[in-house]
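Example 3.2
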Amino acid sequence: MKSPILTRFTLFTVTSLILSTATAAPFDAPGWLKEMTPKKGFDMQSEIQCYTLPYGAIGFVSHILTYYTIVMLSAGLSPLRPWKKLKAPKWDMFLGVVGLLIGTLITVLTIYRCRQRWQFLLIAVWKSTLSVSLGALGVSASRETRRIANESYDSALKPQYRAILWWMILYVLGIFVGLTGLISLVINSWGERIRIVILASEIFGGITIGVGGLAGVLAVVFYYLDKADEQSSDAQRRKRRGLKFLGGGALVVFGVLLVACGFLAALYSDWVLAGLAGNLIGVPSKDNSALYYAYFAAKRLPFFSI
């Protein structure tokens, strides 16, 4: 499924991003890059100017479209025409590679620009993992489409599009990195009582705890149902079955929470950053607009896979 070239490029990209984070100290950058880097701000609204990625309502829509695209590609369907299967591997490969290159370049620039505020830097690293994952998904989906087209199709040959979701592990790792920076920003700004930040935090926290609690309750209910069905069995056997069930239930709870946090955390970050910037729509400043909209467009490219 995975191209060796794509795998090496992705590993190189991730390594570069990690090194960018670890070596955030100033270096002798080119003049044009220095001109693109804002000076260290004196408050949150001035420092967020380094962040050139979508947030607010625009970022929210961008993430919804990204998730939709991921679901469609993993089902082997065209995001643009969901009633049709993917049929153009070369075109899809082109979109995936271009989107991957542009998205990665802009996120790396954002990481450099935000090196003076570690929270924004970590959030940029987080969003870069989503960009890389989306681009890799698009490329992998195109390779699967080509594989099916090149082989004589029969009932035994089943599409393996769901396997491309393994690329999302990279994004899952990025979630922990990004939430570290995001939660720090929320804590630092909590005393300012920014309404949208508090509201978004309450919704995100409530849903996450609610989903986890529901999963836990279901695990307990199923355990006792299983125990009731096994009343006539050996006590030790019931105990072992119960322990296995609880262990499996714990994994289910963890998995549900992980998925919920993964999908909701990015949406949560959109509104937190909007509240901190005092810009609910997320319209970029004149200095950031080119990178901002270029990144938005790059992430939309896999949407046009056909």
